[in-house]
Specification:
Layout (H helix, E strand, L loop, with lengths): L1 H7 L16 H20 L5 E7 L2 E10 L10 E7 L10 E4 L30 H13 L9 H6 L3 H11 L6
Antiparallel strand pairs: 1-2, 2-3, 3-4
Keywords: ATP-binding, Nucleotide-binding, Transferase, Ubl conjugation pathway
GO molecular function: ATP binding; transferase activity
Family: Belongs to the ubiquitin-conjugating enzyme family.
């Protein structure tokens, strides 16, 4: 995962801007514009296996997405639904992302869907976009960070592909199209 984070990470990190308070027109307007641009970029991209869009036309801050397991990994052929909630000071603070479909993975809490990924926490940068986040999450499926597991049982089984796949399928629930 280090190689992916490095390849999309900015050369320098800008200091985070303070959170907008309340519903100031200017703050909300700039976040709305950024999210609209990211949605358009994501819709126009040819990134296979990832998608995301607002749950409704009336709320650009609450999205639903899907991530397909990358080819050549133990997750190949499977698809997960995720929730993405953008804070009012996005992109200066990361979105809150969680798996809605149970995902047995070393860096995902099987019960809550919480994700342990550095770019969604202490390594966040305003240059990241929804697309780069989704690509990082997809990559994480095949390259977990077992040194910092959120699910220690999954981390311990990672080196045993047959047992690991059995656990994936025990928890996996196909999403309705």
């Amino acid at each position: 995962m280090d190689q992916i984070t490095t390849s999309i990470a900015p050369a320098t990190r800008a200091a985070p801007k303070p959170a907008t308070t309340g519903s100031t027109g200017e703050g909300t307007s700039s976040v709305t514009k950024r999210l609209s641009n990211e949605l358009m970029t994501l819709m126009m991209s040819a990134s296979p296996g990832i998608s995301a869009f607002p749950r409704s036309d009336s709320n650009l801050f609450d999205w639903v997405g899907t991530i397909e397991g990358p080819a050549g990994t133990i997750y190949s052929g499977l698809k997960w639904k995720i929730s993405i909630h953008f804070p009012p000071n996005y992109p200066y603070a990361p979105p809150v992302i969680k798996y809605d479909t149970p995902c047995y993975h070393p860096n995902v809490d099987i019960n809550s869907g919480a994700i342990c990924l550095d770019i969604l926490q202490d390594k966040w940068s305003a240059v990241y976009s929804v697309q780069t986040i989704l690509l990082s999450l997809q990559s994480l499926l095949g390259e977990p960070n077992n040194a910092s597991p959120l699910n220690p049982d999954a981390a311990n089984l990672w080196a045993k592909p047959d047992e690991f796949k059995t656990q994936i399928m025990k928890f996996y629930r196909p999403i309705a199209e």
